[in-house]
Amino acid sequence: MPEQCEVRLPDGVRLHVEVTGPADAEVTVVLLHGWTLDGRAWHRQVEPVRDALGEAARIVTYDARGHGRSSCMSLRTATLEQLGDDLAAVLTEVAPTGPVVLVGHSLGGMTIMEYAHRHPTDFAARVAGLVFVATTAEGHTHTAYGLSPRITRLIRLAETTGAGVLARCGSWRPPRALLRALRPSLRWLLFGDRCEPVDIRLTTSAVAHASLRSIGGFRASIGVQHRLATLARLGDVPAAALVGDRDRLTPPRCAESIADALPTTELTVCPGAGHMLMMERADEVNAALLGVVRRALVAGTPADHGLVVGDRGHEG
């Protein structure tokens, strides 16, 4: 069973953290979930990775602020910048020494990029590998929901307007009855050809545990983030990017641009898969994750192999 603990942040927010493996492991793998989800999203990764790596790895999952079992926050802190700072705080508290491999799905991948942007010295000293799962470095630039441009514009207008309303609803949670009614819509939006019933139930449960403030509040920050220049400064850190060719939120062009910016990235496009790759294509995600960890153990941290610590003030 994983060890459960809390990390208390400077603004009083409490993050729920789960840790598996020895404190003196050779590498710490940190799994960051997506928007409106929680650490349970990685239920098909934790045990297989632990079994494959044994005592060599320590595995950390945590619920982002306003998500899962973590506490809610003030609206002004519902930003990717804050999530990048939160990641720095989690590493300091839970994995203060040794190399780390950061694995991020969707919002989690964007959090990793923000951490690299805002804490370049810490990143250089600690991060030995990266795995980006169904994420983007370009905000909503490529998000078209698989629909026509005209319909996409209407959906985005409705989405951003609705997000503003939800953001003002504080720590309230979505009604479960409403989410059950919306389950077919979530299935269409988030999954590709195949979807196990347990995964759509878990996803619906995670959304039910996200505060309305986090569901609405993070939308603006997510839409405008651009971190390709940050990725381009990360030297030759081992990396992988995975995307489904049916992903309606972060389509293949998002992963391709990540791989273009960070040439060490091994790109995998999963046919028939949607946005929830760690559930839909667990074998492919686990293989990529283990490959990066093994490359990281050989290569060492970015401080050993050429990370360029740039001035973060030059990027928008």
What are its keywords?
Rossmann fold; Alpha/beta fold hydrolase; disordered C terminus; eight-stranded mixed beta sheet; about 325 residues; alpha/beta; 8 strands; hydrolase activity; single chain; Epox_hydrolase-like
Q: What are the SSEs and their pairings?
A:
Blueprint: E1 3-8, E2 14-20, E3 27-32, H1 46-53, E4 57-62, H2 80-94, E5 100-105, H3 107-118, H4 120-126, E6 127-133, H5 149-167, H6 176-190, H7 197-209, H8 212-217, H9 219-224, H10 228-232, E7 239-244, H11 252-261, E8 265-270, H12 277-280, H13 282-299
Parallel strand pairs: 3-4, 3-5, 5-6, 6-7, 7-8
Antiparallel strand pairs: 1-2, 2-4
Helix pairs in contact: 2-3, 3-4, 6-7
Keywords: Hydrolase
GO molecular function, one term: hydrolase activity
InterPro entries: AB_hydrolase_1 (IPR000073), AB_hydrolase_fold (IPR029058), AB_hydrolase_sf (IPR050266), Epox_hydrolase-like (IPR000639)
